[in-house]
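Run log // design_07
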């Protein structure tokens, strides 16, 4: 239909139920592009100020009419409600996922609900299959993709922090081609910082939200040596939202490591809490250095 498939799929992670929803030509032409269509559909699905971290919030992966064509484009938009501002937001990404979603016969994918265990979605032939992701829980994006790409050649993957439920900054959703979306953190009450890098969220926690995340400085020696890569760190977030300790989990050499530690040490969060009690947490952060 002139660049559109004319349908989206809604999937409830809690029940596993899915529904194929037609989208009229008039709507597609009036709200052009993944952003326009995504914001329109999100506003219809969540007309009130839905809690961004609640199970009834929706996240939409939407393509535009040029996605998957020779003219442009693998671009797609992710639309939801920001836990930082409470407003409807969108994030743009590239790579192959948008084109593959379109080739599966869909203009978009709408996700809501909360699964009782880790799952991932296999989108194919115009439908969605919910698959067990327990073996992938806690892996970083590269390891996750290596584990499933043999059967799913263009699968987006969330950083372990995203598994905790926060959608924030900076990037953490990638389809393996270098394009990224949000990243976040988590926690649990106890006598000290709670290490949740491997999952295991308590049901009553309110997750920390990034407030200030200044970008790292690209060190001149690393730039001159054409050094690139992703530094993986563990960061301890105190109960007042300050980053009080940062350690390297995966090194990219002393120059990039030092720049990553200096940047993350300046980050500030709205603290995690359980009930009215603010708690300290340990989360995983990935900073990617790329030369333009």
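design_07 sequence
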């Amino acid at each position: 239909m002139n660049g559109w498939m004319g349908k989206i799929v809604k999937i409830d992670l809690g029940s596993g139920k899915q529904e194929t929803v037609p989208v009229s030509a008039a709507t597609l032409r009036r709200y052009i592009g993944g952003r326009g269509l995504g914001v329109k559909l999100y506003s219809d699905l969540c007309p009130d100020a839905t809690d961004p971290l609640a199970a009834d919030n929706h996240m939409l992966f939407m393509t535009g009419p040029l996605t998957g064509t020779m003219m442009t484009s693998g671009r797609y938009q992710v639309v939801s409600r920001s836990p930082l501002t409470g407003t409807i937001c969108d994030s743009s990404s590239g790579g192959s996922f948008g084109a593959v979603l379109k080739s599966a016969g869909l203009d978009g994918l709408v996700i809501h609900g909360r699964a009782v265990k880790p799952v991932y979605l296999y989108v194919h032939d115009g439908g969605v299959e919910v698959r067990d992701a327990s073996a992938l829980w806690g892996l970083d994006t590269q390891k996750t993709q290596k584990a499933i790409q043999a059967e799913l050649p263009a699968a987006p993957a969330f950083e372990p922090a995203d598994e905790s439920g926060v959608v924030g900054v900076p990037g953490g959703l990638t389809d393996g081609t270098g394009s990224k979306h949000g990243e976040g953190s988590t926690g649990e009450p106890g006598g000290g910082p709670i290490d949740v890098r491997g999952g295991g969220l308590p049901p009553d926690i309110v997750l920390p939200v990034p407030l200030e995340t200044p970008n790292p400085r690209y060190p001149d020696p690393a730039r001159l040596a054409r050094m690139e890569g992703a530094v993986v760190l563990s960061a301890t977030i105190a109960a007042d939202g300050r980053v009080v300790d940062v350690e390297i989990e995966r090194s990219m050499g002393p120059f990039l490591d030092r720049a990553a530690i200096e940047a993350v040490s300046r980050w500030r969060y709205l603290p995690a809490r359980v009930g009215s009690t603010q708690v300290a947490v340990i989360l995983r952060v990935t900073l990617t250095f790329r030369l333009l």
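The first helix runs from residue 25 to 30.
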